[in-house]
Amino acid sequence: MAQTTADYLLERLTTWGVRRIYGYPGDGINGIMGALDRASDSLEFVQVRHEEMAAFMACAHAKWTGEVGVCLATSGPGAIHLLNGLYDAKLDHQPVLAIVGQQARAALGGSYQQEVDLTTLFKDVAHEFVHMAVEPSQMRHLVDRAMRIALAERTVTCLIVPNELQDEDAAEPARAHGTIHSSAGWSPPRVIPTDADLHRAAEVLNSGEKVAILVGAGALAATDEVIEVAELLGAGVAKALLGKAAVPDELPFVTGSIGLLGTKPSWDLMTDCDTLLMVGTSFPYSEFLPEEGQARGVQIDIDGRMLGIRYPTEVNLVGDSAETLRALIPLLQRKEDRSWREEIEKNVADWWEVLEARALNDADPINPQRVFWELSSRLPGNCIISSDSGSSANWYARDLKLRRGMKASLSGTLATMGPGVPYAIAAKFTHPDRVAIALVGDGAMQMNGLAELITVAKYWERWSDPRLIVLVLHNGDLNQVTWEQRAMEGDPKFEAAQDVPHFPYARYAELIGLKGIRVDKPEEIGPAWDEAFAADRPVVLEAITDPEVPPLPPHITFDQARALMSSLRKGDSGARGIIRQSFKDKIEEFLPHR
Ligand SMILES: Cc1ncc(C[n+]2csc(CCOP(=O)(O)OP(=O)(O)O)c2C)c(N)n1
Ligand SMILES: [Mg+2]
């Protein structure tokens, strides 16, 4: 049988190093599915429960490996389902290629069944490159461009393939006027600022006395360089959510996360610094950065578009984080006065004690912070952690002490619900020998995590280490938003919107052949983690947690406190529990622990 255009498409992807496609079938891509079956020696197809999950997995594939994540969906509804996962990738700057089917060319414009204007639909999410193939000999350059642009721009691209075109004979471009002769392959450039700009940056960093460093996802491959610069400058290092794995939390000058989900030492670092160095981050909340005018700023980003938009930085450097810091290091003077560093280290040490005390506070029945605290000391060195959006992101950000070599991510910028379980599944496909841990709320489990557990059940026996652990925070509440409504709006909990229906997560896991563990007593948490890590199969660890433990920001503003009090006065059903828990957690900050 002659090679079809679909066969050619897959062969070209293989040339680019693609080995796996996450997707779901449909008649818009029947030709590609047939070709995938024929190509199964070189390309693995991972079948999900919902196309959005395929897009989340493609995004996570990119996050865990640095390669392009590829997802595949049929025309119309399948394509539409991909969107939220693709936006997750776009907003977190991950290279992802979406391949979608379309109705036959002859039918387009005929108001045909499942005919959706896909080029327009994907125009925003894949604005760097979205094209529909109309002719077999285009396939070579469409694949080459979609892959190269995804990598070069670290973004989402989209290739639309009409269904009958997939079955046509493959064709190379003719040697003729009006044809394209492209090649495959891309490797990252070495990007370093000019010497003049490096000297300007060094001048700012050398003249400051109290330097704060903020790192994000762009610093994930610059661990040694960030540590060395922090040592030289006597600086503290705060981390944006996506940069949590950039520097280990065991270092005494790492203040942890920043922002609404952040820590007090990060808040103090930003409030008191006179110099700010931002490395690979677009952390959005400016009220958590120094006040304008308080600090002189230097920012490093590989993408010039992201410079100078969060803080009015004086020196904006386009460059690779590690390369740029390495070029900067010889220009930096070691700060001999270490008092600022000592102050930071003391704040950090105190804060870990506050967190421990908060985690050990009683709650009804389980304090969610305790679940994360107990996990933290048990994290296997090779683990890959994903968190969903919800209260779990707070405890992930604050309570987990990441060590060197661990990977961790979440939907940092889109902050969508739903990625926790699919990110962990992608981790098992990209790193089958490592332990994947997903930290997920009950709302997110009901939104899509429960269905995607079926995908876990389908595939786990293929993984060399079968351990994938899904922690479910069973609090019966869309808790993060309940708290936002209290603290930002001053509204009491709106039960019709916020209550999450009961569901037996651990029993469901057992029902589909996984292991289920349910805990509702604090002393059971540690042993439950031990049991989960010793299991011979994927585990759902269901913790019955107290929704009245506040995921409070590191400092609570007067406006937030007033709003909170007003929500309680309006008859919030959780009022008594809230006052008890908020008071307990807050008081920990003022008590001596040593
Ligand atoms: C797709 C999507 N819908 C809604 C939201 C708003 N939202 C953010 S967190 C959250 C609550 C999550 O509840 P749950 O998963 O139970 O976690 P909890 O906060 O209770 O731990 C909601 C509704 C969102 N971020 N994404
Ligand atoms: Mg919940």
Task: Explain what you see.
The protein is α/β, with parallel strands linked by helices. It contains 22 helices and 18 strands. The chain has helices at residues 5-15, 30-38, 51-65, 77-91, 118-121, 139-153, 163-167, 195-207, 223-233, 264-272, 321-328, 339-360, 368-378, 391-399, 420-430, 442-459, 479-489, 495-498, 505-511, 525-533, 558-569, 575-588, and strands at residues 20-23, 44-47, 69-73, 96-102, 130-132, 156-162, 211-215, 236-239, 254-257, 275-279, 296-301, 315-318, 384-387, 407-410, 436-441, 468-474, 515-519, 539-544. Strands 2-1-3-4-6-5 form a 6-stranded parallel beta sheet, sandwiched between helices. A 6-stranded parallel beta sheet has the order 9-8-7-10-11-12, sandwiched between helices. It has a 6-stranded parallel beta sheet with strand order 14-13-15-16-18-17, with helices on both faces. α14 (391-399) links the parallel β13 (384-387) and β14. The longest helix has 22 residues, at 339-360. It starts with a helix and ends in a 6-residue tail after the last helix. The model has no long low-confidence stretch (mean pLDDT 96). Thiamine diphosphate (TPP) binds at residues 389-392, 415-417, 441-444, 473, 475, 477-481, 500.
